[in-house]
Amino acid sequence: MRLLITGATGYVGSRLVCALLRQGHEVVVTSRDTRKLDRFGWSSDVIKVAMDADDPISVKKAMSAAGQVDAIYYLVHAIGQADFANGDRDAARNVAEAARDAGVGRIIYLGGFVPGDDKLSSHLQSRADVAEGLVVEDGPELVWLRAAVIIGAGSTSFEIIRYMADRLPVIPEPGWITNEMDPISIRDAIHYLVAACESSLPPGEYDVSGPDHARYISILHEYISAVRFPRLRLPVFGVSTRLAGRLGGMFVPVPASLTEELVTSLNHSMTASEHSIRELVPPPEGGLTPMRDAVRASVESPYPRSVCDLHDLHHLADTDPAWAGGDWLRVKRRVGGTIGGTLRVSARIAGALLPART
């Protein structure tokens, strides 16, 4: 199939490109600046198209440049940016309308669970609004995969947990941290996304999750167990998710606005309400990944490699954010960058001083 991916430079999108290429699909990748795609290992194997999802004219031009596309993966989000909720909804509508006009048959969207609470956080509400924006009259059919926390090195949620556990000798435990949550490993999320482009999966809404029914604090405990760093636990009261998000944004290297929005969403339980996709899509080889195995594989990630060369999807890619991987890796990267830059400058100076060969 010929598949177009928006958000391919993100954590999930960059890994999805590799998986689709391995399946033999032709992949079209969009970006505001296509030069930024050159750093990805799959860059030479995809078709690159410039597109700004916020600009309807840009989106229409991109659809024309992409040629006939069978399905679109919609993985764009602007969480953490000013007025991201309205921007996300409008961008989704731009893509859906252009896809309709271009004759695209299906849009696959990865969003979050939408709890039945009366008042949702801005992040969770925007995920639902995007799904609504992707449905237009006479437009493509929609497959909406809904997930909670995705576990893997480089995943924003996982990295926030990593830094909190690494940097705090005493772990504060407000009451909401025990809210229920059904996580999914990045390996299993990619498995379902790849299957979602096939016509054998009917359009509709599907909750995707791993085999474990857990709580938010469960991932933290599994991480502490995996790294073998003992931590004290301290129950605290009167700390809202919004306040915790603001404090966390000042404490971890993940962008502060992004941290605040994600932590604020922890006020809601995020559990799968149905598992119909498991009846329609066979499980990955070896079955769905237990939370403990996903966390341990993420912790054991070696130094970052090119995304399509990862031995395990839970490992860190060299195109994941610079803040991913924990403090030790950040120090290694800085030292390596400093040494590498010094050596390159020295080599240039030496080359200029040495006599030319005849």
From TrEMBL:
Residues 7-117 form the NAD(P)-binding domain. Gene3D superfamilies: NAD(P)-binding Rossmann-like Domain. One of its GO terms (molecular function) is protein-containing complex binding. This is NAD-dependent epimerase. The lineage of its organism: Bacteria, Bacillati, Actinomycetota, Actinomycetes, Mycobacteriales.
